[in-house]
Design brief:
280 residues; outer membrane lipoprotein receptor (LolB), chain A; alpha+beta
Length: 280
């Protein structure tokens, strides 16, 4: 089996490689407020609205711009997303601003398939191996990626929902461990920021629009556990609940070098070194 070095992977997946560039970027600062917690009825209303929105969309097409920023650089790319909720499937195409293909990513049935055009490599493998998941800096979890593409967070499995401070709902499991934390906008009780504990990421939603009862945010920011903004996506267009073309989630890989996911070494040391700079 071929091993893949850290150096070769630096020119690999845009989402894997360029994320550290943004780690010296902005930091979310949670506003301090004396607003009382939501009462039980308000919590139930918000949770029910989340479930309504989840049921409202089964398929989507979305296109926009992906931006990663650091103190001295900015990286932009065009992004196209096609997704299906059940059974879960996702296709992402990332292209350079002038149209050159960069990466084609498919995630279906626990299988990740990535074509890297800059490297002329084809990465493929299953994500049901915890050792492989730990090697991937980007959390390829279906719920997190769907929430980004959909522009509205999906509720995970949980046991209890409660509010302990103003405009915030905490979801816990049967052991009372936090599963997800939802911060709401004060005016409309829409999701502003969602911390996904298991995935170790936080998503921020802004620029909400409504189409036939479907609420979706046009701007999404993704941050790490330290609240550093790593990437931002601004979606220009979304189309919901249209029939998907046959075979849309089948990857048509060119004659590139085949690399199994098992051959990818951990990127954590390299990423940690790049992410150690001061925050602005």
């Amino acid at each position: 089996m071929k091993s893949v070095t850290h150096r070769s992977l630096r020119v690999s997946l845009l989402l894997w490689v360029l994320l550290p560039l943004a780690s010296a970027g902005c930091v979310w600062v949670a506003p301090r407020s004396a607003v009382p917690p939501l009462n039980r009825k308000q919590v139930e209303t918000v949770i029910e609205s989340f479930k309504d929105q989840e049921r409202a969309v089964q398929t989507l097409f979305a296109s926009g711009r992906l931006t990663l920023e650091s103190q001295d650089a900015q990286s932009d790319a065009e992004i196209l997303v096609v997704a299906r909720r059940d059974p879960s499937a996702l296709r992402i195409e990332i292209t350079h601003a002038w149209g050159q293909p960069l990466f084609h990513i498919c995630l279906q049935g626990g299988r990740l398939d990535v074509v890297s055009f800059p490297e002329k490599r084809h990465y493929e493998g299953r994500l049901d191996n915890p050792r492989i998941i730990k090697r991937l800096p980007f959390p390829f979890h279906a719920e997190a990626i769907w929430s980004i593409a959909r522009g509205y967070p999906i509720l995970p499995s949980y046991h209890q929902a409660r509010s302990t401070k103003g405009r915030q709902i905490v979801l816990t499991d049967k052991a009372d461990a936090v599963v997800q934390v939802i911060d709401l906008y004060p005016d409309a009780l829409l999701p502003q920021k969602v911390w996904m504990r298991r995935e170790g990421i936080a998503l921020r939603f802004s620029g909400f629009e409504e189409v036939s009862g479907i609420l979706h945010a046009k701007q999404i920011q993704w941050a790490d556990d330290e609240q550093r903004i790593l990437l931002a996506i601004e979606f220009r267009e979304r189309v919901f609940n249209r029939a998907l073309p046959e075979g849309i989630f089948q990857q048509q890989a060119p004659d590139f070098e085949e690399i199994p996911l098992e051959a990818i070494g951990s990127l954590e040391p390299a990423m940690s070194a790049k992410a150690s700079g001061p925050l602005s």
